[in-house]
Amino acid sequence: MPRIYIREPNHFYTYELPVVPGGEVVVGSAPTCQLALPGVNGLSSTHARIVCQPQGYVIEDLHSQYGTLQNGRPVQSEYMQPGLEYMLGAACITLEPVAAAQPAQPVQPSPTAVESAKTGAAPETKKSPAIKRPGTGVKGANQHTDISQLAKKFDRSGSRRGSAFTFVYVVIILLLALYAGIALRHWERTGNFLPGIQADGK
After folding, report:
1. Is the model's pLDDT at 182 over the cut of 60?
2. Which pLDDT value is given to residue 102?
3. Cα–Cα distance between 109 and 91 in angstroms, integer?
4. Cα separations (Å) of 122 from 24, 26, 108, 110?
5. What is the gyration radius of the CA atoms in the chain, in angstroms?
6. What is the pLDDT of residues 169-180, one digit of tens each?
7. Shortest CA distance to 2 belongs to which of 98, 115, 86?
8. Long-range pairs for 131-135: beta carbons < 8 A, 24 or more residues apart
9. What is the pTM of this model?
């Protein structure tokens, strides 16, 4: 549907135009206008109107105070040219350009389809080659299994080493504690740390 672009100092929007010949849109600051733009500087209450004609859209100035301008030229009544800017005070109105329809490009049949149509045989469908992804073949699976086994062996050996180290550490702590207890009891009884060693070191 044809439409116009309206650009104000702080706003930008679109408005759809009537398509029935004789239909019109009055532009102005008054709320009674079909396209009301209140608060726009230099825009009269009923500034201009856009009328649908069989040959296009006509913009007419409705004796506004500052007039309707196109590139600084006063406009009384003329057909709107798509893409041109029409100034109604501080508002700019542009008729949307109509894009030309692109002709459809004919589809050229492939030689295989033409040959199949002549012979009446169904066209041959080519299968796309299977895509090999790394790690999904037999070799990749074996590598994955080997790595998993090595990781398990490493975990088991590491846990064994850690258990042995913990055991030795606990035994050493217990022996030291036993030695400290024996030395403390001997000192309380005899005044010497160990048999054969006196408290004064002689």
Report:
1. yes
2. 47
3. 54
4. 60, 64, 18, 13
5. 49
6. 778 888 887 877
7. 98
8. none
9. 0.49
Sheet holding 73-75, edge to edge: 12-16, 3-7, 91-95, 85-88, 68-70, 73-75
Structure-block tokens of residue 97? 């350009």
Q: How many CB atoms lie within 10 A of CB 4?
A: 22
Tell me, what amino acid is at 175? L
Write out the two tokens for 28. 């102005």
Residue found by looking up tokens 């209140």 in the block:
38
How many residues are recorded in the chain? 202
Contact 42, 27 (CB under 8 A): no
Please write down the HEC assignment for all residues of the chain: CCEEEEECCCCEEEEECCCCCCCEEEEECCCCCCEECCCCCCCCCCCEEEEEECCEEEEEECCCCCCEEECCEEECEEECCCCCEEEECCEEEEECCCCCCCCCCCCCCCHHHHHHHHHCCCCCCCCCCCCCCCCCCHHHHHHHHHHHHHHHHHHHHHHHHHHHHHHHHHHHHHHHHHHHHHHHHHHHHHCCCECCECCCCC
Contacts of 39 (CB under 8 A, 6+ apart): 29
Compute the distance between CA of residue 134 and CA of residue 55 in angstroms, rounded to an integer.
67
Does position 1 have pLDDT exceeding 70, yes or no?
yes
pLDDT tens readout for residues 98-131: 654 445 555 555 555 555 555 665 555 545 444 4
